Every structure is written in structure tokens, then in C-alpha cells.
Structure to design on (392 residues):
């Protein structure tokens, strides 16, 4: 019994997304110059006459710019629609929200699926290695092009939280507040290991073709689906899996004609297996394998203390930014211990920082799920900073 992948023979069609093109390109940290840069984005709410109400919302690893409206490929609601919108914790009646597809992504921003400048050939595995800082510098170009000289805040969860922290380090005078959620100031060895397993699954797919799978009009669907399945397990908790699935078994009707021995071993599947297979097959319809490789490696390289001889407080020295760090008690991918490490470093740097650990059994993905305590924390922090700053 394998993974069923719909439309596995057709490369991802990203369609036409709202984007800005920067003809001057972007100098990457690896030393490569991108001759041209596209940044795909969405905005919500209205920029105030004083241009002081803009919030950048940074998406997590497999997210995109469709934070609060219908996704054009899946038809599903925005990935944080419960958080962003009129009257929501990030209230678009008050704030102007900007969300970009990260550099290296596959929903319109320059990445491996993009055509090389002046060519009809895709970048593919020739796309240069990027960092979280490169992602943020691309976002900075977009923000400035929209006429925003100073942001009100930067908010993000998981990899989005890495971007939020990078904003605070690279452009500390650019915003009033930063809210990193379920994240860390570095990618741990365990997380790097998980990412490597996912990459190896993609490489092992017979449809990988050295990363030039589009030339065969196929995608490495099985490898990408397995990578997603493995990663998705890390986003959950044992308690959440047990509550949702336990050891319940379901019979797959496609196996009705399977030989008896095979049916005995694989015909009855646990509901958690079926759930993971669904997650994997759905993922390949909206994500590109080369982007998966590019972005996971960017996350692996993330370490804010690396340029400061391992001294994280030095990265935030003299920062004027107000921080609110949020963790979840059952998050074992980015555990509360790493958030506390970040908070201690911010305290040592004399930063204005508050810290909230939210009790939940939903795991890392808690920031995307219904969590009233998170809603109250986001609303309270942003509202308090806005009131203190005299934001209308």
C-alpha cells in the first residue's frame, strides 16, 4: 500500500500572483547576485495617512502570502485567517498587513521554479543557496517600495518567527515591535536531521531526475510526500495524535482485491497513517520539491549568534525593539527551553521583552490552530504597543 498522489505527472502551476519586480536584483549572502528579483505578496487593510500602521506577517516553512484569503491552488481559506482580518487579533481595521512569499518559495517569488534571467530555463538546483537574512532583505525591498519607512511590527511563527527575529537584528530601527512565535534563534541539530531525512526522500525518488524533473513533465511526488509526512509529525504532539487518532483502524476500499497476506499486513491501515498519506498527497499539489530543498537548507543555516562568536545577546545589543516571545508547552520541535534562551539573551541585551508560554497539548502547530490564549496574547501585545505609540 503506497501514497496516492493526485496529478503527480504535472509540474506545479503557480498561476499569476500579485508581485513586485526589482530590476536591480539582490546580492545574496553566498556572494551570488540575483540579476532580477520578484516578490509575490498580499496586503490586507489600509495604510494609514501617517504610514505607521504596517505589520509584516512572515509565513512558516510551507506557508505563503495567502495569509487571510482563499488560496488560488487549493481553494482553502488563508493559513492564518483566524488571526488576520477585521476585528481579529491582528485587526485589519487598524493595521495594514503585508505578507510575502519568501525568496526561494514557489508561489510567485523568485525561487528554483523561476526562469533564469534572459533564459527560458528554470533555475532548478542551480538556484543559489539562500539564508533567512536574504529572505528578509527581499521583504525589506518590498516594504520600502510600498512607501513604508517604518513598520509597526513584524510577526511570525516557526520559520516566520526566524524571519521576525532576523528583521529585528538586520533592521532594528525599522519597527516598533517584533513577535516571534514557536521559534528559536537557531536551528537545532535535531531539526537539521529531520530536514535531511526529508531531502533524502526527495533525492531517492526515481522521478527526481537530478532536480530537473519538469523536463519530463513530472514531479518527485512520492519523495516530496514522504518528506511532508515526516515533517508533519514534528508539528504535532503525542497527545494530539492520540486524541485525534489513537490506534483506530480503517479499511481502504482500494485494497478490496489485495491478496490475503497483503491485506492482513497492509489492508487495514491506522487512521493516523491515512491522515499522513493525505497530508503528503495534498502537499505535492501546491509545493515544489526544489523549493523544499532550498528553504530547508536556509532554515538549517539560521543562527543569530554565529556572527557574534556564539554570544546571542550581542546580536540584540542596543535594540530599541519591543519583543513578545511566545512558546507552547507541548512544542518539541521548537521547545520552550529555546524560547527561554532567547528571552535571557534579550534581557542581557537590556531589550524590552515579555514572554508567554501557552499551555496546550497541540504541539508546534498550535500557532495555526484555535488557541484562545494565543489570540489574547497577540491582541493584547499589539494593542498595547499601538496605544502606547498613539496609533489611531
Amino acid at each position: 500500500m503506497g501514497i496516492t498522489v493526485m496529478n503527480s505527472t504535472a509540474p506545479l502551476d503557480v498561476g499569476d500572483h500579485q508581485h513586485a519586480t526589482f530590476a536591480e536584483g539582490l546580492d545574496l549572502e553566498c556572494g551570488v547576485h540575483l540579476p532580477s528579483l520578484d516578490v509575490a505578496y498580499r496586503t490586507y487593510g489600509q495604510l494609514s495617512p501617517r504610514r505607521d500602521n504596517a505589520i509584516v506577517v512572515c509565513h512558516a516553512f510551507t506557508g505563503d502570502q495567502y495569509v487571510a484569503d482563499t488560496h488560488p491552488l487549493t481553494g482553502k481559506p488563508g493559513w492564518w485567517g483566524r488571526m488576520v482580518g477585521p476585528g481579529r487579533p491582528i485587526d485589519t481595521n487598524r493595521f495594514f498587513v503585508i505578507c510575502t512569499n519568501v525568496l526561494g518559495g514557489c508561489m510567485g517569488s523568485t525561487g528554483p521554479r523561476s526562469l533564469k534571467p534572459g533564459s527560458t530555463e528554470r533555475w532548478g538546483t542551480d538556484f543559489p543557496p539562500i539564508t533567512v537574512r536574504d529572505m528578509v532583505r527581499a521583504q525589506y525591498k518590498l516594504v520600502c517600495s510600498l512607501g513604508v519607512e517604518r513598520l509597526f511590527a513584524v510577526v511570525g511563527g516557526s520559520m516566520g518567527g526566524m524571519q521576525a527575529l532576523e528583521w529585528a537584528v538586520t533592521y532594528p530601527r525599522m519597527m516598533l515591535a517584533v513577535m516571534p512565535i514557536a521559534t528559536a534563534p537557531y536551528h537545532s541539530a535535531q531539526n537539521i536531521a529531520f530536514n535531511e531525512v526529508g531531502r533524502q526522500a526527495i533525492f531517492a525518488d526515481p522521478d527526481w531526475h537530478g532536480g530537473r524533473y519538469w523536463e519530463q513533465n513530472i514531479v518527485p511526488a512520492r519523495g516530496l510526500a514522504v518528506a511532508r509526512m515526516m515533517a508533519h509529525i514534528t508539528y504535532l504532539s503525542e497527545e494530539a495524535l492520540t486524541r485525534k487518532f489513537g490506534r483506530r483502524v480503517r479499511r481502504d476500499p482500494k485494497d478490496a482485491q489485495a491478496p490475503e497476506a497483503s491485506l492482513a499486513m497492509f489492508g487495514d491501515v491506522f487512521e493516523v497513517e491515512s491522515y499522513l498519506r493525505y497530508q503528503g498527497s495534498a502537499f505535492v499539489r501546491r509545493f515544489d520539491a526544489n523549493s523544499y530543498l532550498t528553504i530547508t537548507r536556509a532554515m538549517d543555516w539560521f543562527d543569530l549568534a554565529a556572527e557574534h562568536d556564539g554570544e546571542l545577546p550581542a546580536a540584540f545589543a542596543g535594540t530599541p525593539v519591543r519583543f513578545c516571545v511566545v512558546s507552547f508547552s507541548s512544542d518539541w520541535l521548537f521547545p520552550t527551553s529555546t524560547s527561554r534562551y532567547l528571552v535571557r539573551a534579550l534581557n542581557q541585551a537590556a531589550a524590552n521583552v515579555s514572554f508567554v508560554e501557552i499551555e496546550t497539548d497541540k504541539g508546534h502547530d498550535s500557532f495555526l490552530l484555535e488557541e484562545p490564549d494565543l489570540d489574547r496574547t497577540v491582541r493584547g501585545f499589539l494593542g498595547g504597543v499601538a496605544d502606547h505609540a498613539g496609533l489611531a
Observations:
- The two ends are 58 Å apart (CA to CA).
- The domain at 191-296 is CATH 1.10.1740.110 (Rna Polymerase Sigma Factor; Chain: A).
- The CA atoms of residues 172 and 319 lie 6 Å apart.
- Residues 1-10, 255-263 have pLDDT under 50 and may be disordered.
